[in-house]
Amino acid sequence: MLWLPVTPGEQLFLYLFERLGHKLSFQWTTEAGIDSMDFLFNPVRFQEFTQLSVSLEVFLRAIRSARAIYAQAPNTNPSDFARTIRRDLDLPSTFTNDKNFGEIAKRAGRVAHEVARDTGLEKSVLRAERKQCYLCGEKLDQAHNPRSKSSIEHIWPLSLGGETVESNLIPACKDCNDKRQHMVTWAWGPVQSTFEELTTSDTNPNGAVRLSLGLGKIMLKAQGIEGKPNTKTTLKEAAQHVWPAIPGLKLKTKHSYIYFEYFQEMENTL
Ligand SMILES: [Zn+2]
Protein backbone atom coordinates (compact mmCIF):
# COMPACT_ATOMS: atom_id res chain seq x y z
CA MET A 1 0.00 0.00 0.00
CA LEU A 2 1.47 3.31 -1.08
CA TRP A 3 -0.53 5.39 1.36
CA LEU A 4 -3.68 5.20 3.49
CA PRO A 5 -6.61 5.85 1.14
CA VAL A 6 -9.46 8.16 2.18
CA THR A 7 -11.78 8.20 -0.82
CA PRO A 8 -13.24 5.45 -3.06
CA GLY A 9 -11.21 6.73 -6.03
CA GLU A 10 -7.96 6.23 -4.13
CA GLN A 11 -9.05 2.74 -3.07
CA LEU A 12 -9.68 1.78 -6.67
CA PHE A 13 -6.34 3.21 -7.81
CA LEU A 14 -4.37 1.44 -5.06
CA TYR A 15 -6.25 -1.82 -5.67
CA LEU A 16 -5.16 -1.72 -9.32
CA PHE A 17 -1.63 -0.62 -8.42
CA GLU A 18 -1.15 -3.57 -6.09
CA ARG A 19 -2.50 -6.11 -8.54
CA LEU A 20 -0.83 -4.82 -11.67
CA GLY A 21 2.33 -3.33 -10.24
CA HIS A 22 3.82 -6.62 -9.08
CA LYS A 23 3.59 -8.02 -12.59
CA LEU A 24 6.18 -5.52 -13.71
CA SER A 25 9.73 -6.24 -12.80
CA PHE A 26 12.71 -4.35 -13.92
CA GLN A 27 16.18 -5.88 -14.01
CA TRP A 28 18.96 -3.51 -13.15
CA THR A 29 22.22 -4.50 -14.70
CA THR A 30 25.60 -2.84 -15.01
CA GLU A 31 26.74 -4.84 -18.01
CA ALA A 32 28.79 -2.93 -20.53
CA GLY A 33 26.80 -0.21 -22.19
CA ILE A 34 23.82 -0.32 -19.88
CA ASP A 35 25.31 1.90 -17.20
CA SER A 36 25.66 4.69 -19.70
CA MET A 37 21.88 4.90 -19.93
CA ASP A 38 21.55 7.94 -17.75
CA PHE A 39 17.78 7.96 -17.75
CA LEU A 40 17.91 4.86 -15.56
CA PHE A 41 19.79 6.94 -13.02
CA ASN A 42 17.54 5.72 -10.22
CA PRO A 43 16.31 2.14 -10.84
CA VAL A 44 13.99 2.10 -7.83
CA ARG A 45 12.19 5.25 -8.93
CA PHE A 46 12.16 4.12 -12.52
CA GLN A 47 10.40 0.93 -11.50
CA GLU A 48 7.91 2.87 -9.41
CA PHE A 49 7.34 5.19 -12.35
CA THR A 50 6.43 2.34 -14.69
CA GLN A 51 4.12 0.78 -12.09
CA LEU A 52 2.37 4.06 -11.39
CA SER A 53 1.99 4.84 -15.10
CA VAL A 54 0.50 1.45 -15.96
CA SER A 55 -1.84 1.49 -12.95
CA LEU A 56 -2.97 5.00 -13.77
CA GLU A 57 -3.73 4.09 -17.35
CA VAL A 58 -5.93 1.20 -16.24
CA PHE A 59 -7.43 3.23 -13.39
CA LEU A 60 -8.57 6.01 -15.74
CA ARG A 61 -10.36 3.50 -17.92
CA ALA A 62 -11.80 1.69 -14.90
CA ILE A 63 -13.21 4.85 -13.32
CA ARG A 64 -14.71 5.97 -16.65
CA SER A 65 -16.35 2.59 -17.03
CA ALA A 66 -17.57 2.54 -13.40
CA ARG A 67 -19.02 6.05 -13.76
CA ALA A 68 -20.89 5.08 -16.91
CA ILE A 69 -22.33 1.89 -15.36
CA TYR A 70 -23.48 3.82 -12.29
CA ALA A 71 -25.04 6.60 -14.40
CA GLN A 72 -27.01 4.07 -16.42
CA ALA A 73 -28.05 1.67 -13.68
CA PRO A 74 -27.22 2.78 -10.13
CA ASN A 75 -28.75 -0.39 -8.67
CA THR A 76 -26.33 -2.72 -10.45
CA ASN A 77 -24.92 -5.15 -7.90
CA PRO A 78 -21.15 -5.21 -7.21
CA SER A 79 -20.48 -8.49 -8.98
CA ASP A 80 -22.14 -7.26 -12.20
CA PHE A 81 -20.11 -4.08 -11.81
CA ALA A 82 -16.91 -6.10 -11.65
CA ARG A 83 -17.96 -8.28 -14.61
CA THR A 84 -18.79 -5.31 -16.85
CA ILE A 85 -15.57 -3.44 -16.04
CA ARG A 86 -13.55 -6.58 -16.58
CA ARG A 87 -15.14 -7.01 -20.01
CA ASP A 88 -14.71 -3.32 -20.92
CA LEU A 89 -11.05 -3.32 -19.95
CA ASP A 90 -10.13 -6.90 -20.78
CA LEU A 91 -8.79 -7.50 -17.26
CA PRO A 92 -7.67 -10.91 -15.93
CA SER A 93 -10.46 -13.03 -14.40
CA THR A 94 -8.94 -12.70 -10.92
CA PHE A 95 -10.44 -9.22 -10.81
CA THR A 96 -14.01 -10.47 -11.04
CA ASN A 97 -13.47 -13.33 -8.63
CA ASP A 98 -12.60 -10.86 -5.92
CA LYS A 99 -15.85 -9.40 -4.64
CA ASN A 100 -14.01 -6.44 -3.11
CA PHE A 101 -13.21 -5.20 -6.59
CA GLY A 102 -16.88 -4.83 -7.52
CA GLU A 103 -17.64 -3.01 -4.29
CA ILE A 104 -14.69 -0.63 -4.57
CA ALA A 105 -15.45 0.06 -8.24
CA LYS A 106 -19.13 0.71 -7.53
CA ARG A 107 -18.37 3.20 -4.75
CA ALA A 108 -15.80 4.98 -6.93
CA GLY A 109 -18.25 5.04 -9.85
CA ARG A 110 -20.96 6.58 -7.67
CA VAL A 111 -18.68 9.31 -6.31
CA ALA A 112 -17.27 10.09 -9.76
CA HIS A 113 -20.78 10.29 -11.19
CA GLU A 114 -22.24 12.46 -8.44
CA VAL A 115 -19.25 14.83 -8.07
CA ALA A 116 -21.04 16.20 -5.03
CA ARG A 117 -19.57 19.37 -3.64
CA ASP A 118 -20.21 20.71 -0.18
CA THR A 119 -19.34 24.39 -0.22
CA GLY A 120 -20.12 24.73 3.49
CA LEU A 121 -17.56 22.08 4.37
CA GLU A 122 -15.04 23.48 1.87
CA LYS A 123 -15.32 26.93 3.45
CA SER A 124 -14.94 25.60 6.97
CA VAL A 125 -11.81 23.63 6.02
CA LEU A 126 -10.41 26.75 4.37
CA ARG A 127 -11.01 28.65 7.60
CA ALA A 128 -9.60 25.98 9.89
CA GLU A 129 -6.42 25.04 8.02
CA ARG A 130 -3.27 27.09 7.84
CA LYS A 131 -3.50 30.00 5.42
CA GLN A 132 -0.87 28.76 3.04
CA CYS A 133 -0.81 26.85 -0.24
CA TYR A 134 0.18 23.25 0.51
CA LEU A 135 2.22 23.05 -2.69
CA CYS A 136 4.09 26.33 -3.19
CA GLY A 137 3.70 27.83 0.29
CA GLU A 138 2.14 31.10 -0.90
CA LYS A 139 0.36 32.93 1.92
CA LEU A 140 -3.40 32.81 1.41
CA ASP A 141 -4.14 35.37 4.08
CA GLN A 142 -5.76 38.46 2.52
CA ALA A 143 -4.31 40.67 5.26
CA HIS A 144 -0.73 39.61 4.47
CA ASN A 145 -1.08 39.04 0.78
CA PRO A 146 -3.92 41.03 -0.81
CA ARG A 147 -3.25 39.45 -4.21
CA SER A 148 -3.67 35.93 -2.92
CA LYS A 149 -6.44 33.89 -4.44
CA SER A 150 -7.19 30.95 -2.24
CA SER A 151 -9.03 27.85 -3.34
CA ILE A 152 -9.72 24.49 -1.86
CA GLU A 153 -8.22 21.46 -3.50
CA HIS A 154 -9.59 17.93 -3.55
CA ILE A 155 -6.38 15.98 -2.99
CA TRP A 156 -7.93 13.09 -4.91
CA PRO A 157 -9.99 14.79 -7.65
CA LEU A 158 -13.79 14.70 -7.44
CA SER A 159 -14.26 13.36 -10.95
CA LEU A 160 -11.84 10.49 -10.24
CA GLY A 161 -13.78 9.29 -7.22
CA GLY A 162 -12.47 11.69 -4.57
CA GLU A 163 -15.15 12.72 -2.11
CA THR A 164 -15.72 16.11 -0.51
CA VAL A 165 -14.65 15.06 2.98
CA GLU A 166 -12.42 16.94 5.36
CA SER A 167 -9.53 14.52 4.96
CA ASN A 168 -9.56 15.05 1.19
CA LEU A 169 -9.62 18.86 1.26
CA ILE A 170 -6.65 21.19 1.56
CA PRO A 171 -6.04 24.90 0.85
CA ALA A 172 -4.12 25.75 -2.32
CA CYS A 173 -3.43 28.91 -4.26
CA LYS A 174 -5.47 29.33 -7.41
CA ASP A 175 -2.34 28.98 -9.52
CA CYS A 176 -1.27 25.58 -8.15
CA ASN A 177 -4.86 24.32 -8.16
CA ASP A 178 -5.21 25.23 -11.85
CA LYS A 179 -1.81 23.80 -12.78
CA ARG A 180 -2.29 20.54 -10.94
CA GLN A 181 -5.70 19.72 -12.42
CA HIS A 182 -6.01 15.94 -12.34
CA MET A 183 -2.37 15.11 -11.74
CA VAL A 184 -2.75 12.43 -9.06
CA THR A 185 0.79 11.08 -8.78
CA TRP A 186 4.23 12.46 -9.51
CA ALA A 187 4.53 10.01 -12.41
CA TRP A 188 1.98 12.10 -14.32
CA GLY A 189 4.60 14.86 -14.48
CA PRO A 190 7.06 15.57 -17.30
CA VAL A 191 9.19 12.55 -16.41
CA GLN A 192 10.34 11.50 -19.87
CA SER A 193 10.63 14.93 -21.39
CA THR A 194 12.85 16.60 -18.81
CA PHE A 195 16.38 17.38 -19.85
CA GLU A 196 17.35 20.85 -18.96
CA GLU A 197 20.42 22.87 -18.33
CA LEU A 198 20.01 25.57 -15.73
CA THR A 199 21.44 28.98 -16.33
CA THR A 200 23.26 30.90 -13.62
CA SER A 201 20.25 33.10 -12.95
CA ASP A 202 17.90 30.20 -12.42
CA THR A 203 18.62 27.44 -9.92
CA ASN A 204 15.17 25.90 -9.94
CA PRO A 205 13.63 23.52 -12.46
CA ASN A 206 10.56 24.64 -14.41
CA GLY A 207 7.06 24.82 -12.90
CA ALA A 208 5.74 21.52 -14.22
CA VAL A 209 8.76 19.64 -12.83
CA ARG A 210 8.46 21.43 -9.48
CA LEU A 211 4.79 20.52 -9.18
CA SER A 212 5.51 16.88 -9.93
CA LEU A 213 8.34 16.84 -7.37
CA GLY A 214 5.99 18.38 -4.80
CA LEU A 215 3.54 15.51 -5.30
CA GLY A 216 6.46 13.08 -5.11
CA LYS A 217 7.45 14.52 -1.77
CA ILE A 218 3.92 14.07 -0.40
CA MET A 219 3.73 10.49 -1.71
CA LEU A 220 7.11 9.52 -0.27
CA LYS A 221 6.15 10.95 3.10
CA ALA A 222 2.80 9.10 3.05
CA GLN A 223 4.57 5.79 2.30
CA GLY A 224 6.23 6.00 5.70
CA ILE A 225 9.19 3.88 6.71
CA GLU A 226 9.53 0.44 5.16
CA GLY A 227 8.68 -2.32 7.60
CA LYS A 228 6.84 0.06 9.92
CA PRO A 229 3.21 0.02 8.75
CA ASN A 230 2.05 2.48 11.38
CA THR A 231 4.22 5.21 9.82
CA LYS A 232 1.97 5.21 6.72
CA THR A 233 -0.36 8.20 6.47
CA THR A 234 -3.07 9.67 4.26
CA LEU A 235 -2.03 12.06 1.50
CA LYS A 236 -3.43 15.00 3.47
CA GLU A 237 -1.50 14.09 6.62
CA ALA A 238 1.65 13.78 4.55
CA ALA A 239 0.98 17.14 2.87
CA GLN A 240 0.52 18.77 6.27
CA HIS A 241 3.86 17.35 7.31
CA VAL A 242 5.94 18.54 4.38
CA TRP A 243 4.02 21.81 3.93
CA PRO A 244 4.88 23.38 1.53
CA ALA A 245 5.56 20.38 -0.67
CA ILE A 246 7.40 21.99 -3.59
CA PRO A 247 11.04 21.75 -2.62
CA GLY A 248 13.64 24.48 -2.84
CA LEU A 249 16.52 22.65 -4.48
CA LYS A 250 20.19 23.50 -4.43
CA LEU A 251 21.15 22.72 -7.99
CA LYS A 252 24.25 22.96 -10.09
CA THR A 253 24.21 25.36 -13.00
CA LYS A 254 25.72 24.35 -16.33
CA HIS A 255 24.64 20.79 -15.65
CA SER A 256 22.01 19.01 -17.73
CA TYR A 257 19.41 17.54 -15.42
CA ILE A 258 17.07 14.68 -16.10
CA TYR A 259 13.91 14.13 -14.08
CA PHE A 260 15.22 11.36 -11.82
CA GLU A 261 18.17 13.47 -10.75
CA TYR A 262 15.75 16.15 -9.62
CA PHE A 263 13.78 13.49 -7.80
CA GLN A 264 16.93 12.38 -5.99
CA GLU A 265 17.67 15.98 -4.96
CA MET A 266 14.09 16.29 -3.73
CA GLU A 267 14.38 13.09 -1.65
CA ASN A 268 17.38 14.63 0.05
CA THR A 269 15.13 17.44 1.31
CA LEU A 270 12.79 15.04 3.16
ZN1 LIG B 1 0.51 27.39 -4.68
Question: How does this model look, in words?
Answer:
This protein is mainly α and 270 residues long. It folds into three domains: 1-114, no CATH class; 117-180, no CATH class; 183-270, no CATH class. It has helices at 8-21, 43-72, 78-89, 94-97, 99-114, 119-128, 174-180, 207-223, 235-242, 259-268, and strands spanning 150-154, 169-173, 195-197, 256-258. Strands 1-2 form a two-stranded antiparallel ribbon. Helix 1 (8-21) crosses helix 2 (43-72), helix 1 packs across helix 5 and helix 3 packs across helix 5. The protein is globular, with a radius of gyration of 20 Å. It starts with 7 loop residues before the first helix and ends with a helix. 36% of the residues are buried. The model has no long low-confidence stretch (mean pLDDT 88). The protein binds zinc ion. Zinc ion binds at residues 133, 135-136, 138, 172-173, 175-176.
- Indicate the mean pLDDT: 88
Q: What is the makeup of the main sheet?
A: 2 strands, antiparallel
Radius of gyration: 20 Å
Compute the number of strand runs. 4
**What small-molecule ligands were found?**
zinc ion
Quote the distance from N terminus to C terminus.
20 Å
The order of strands across the largest sheet is 1-2
Name the overall outline.
globular
**Class per helix and strand makeup:** mainly alpha
Strand content: 5-15%
Low-confidence runs (pLDDT<50, min 5 residues)? none
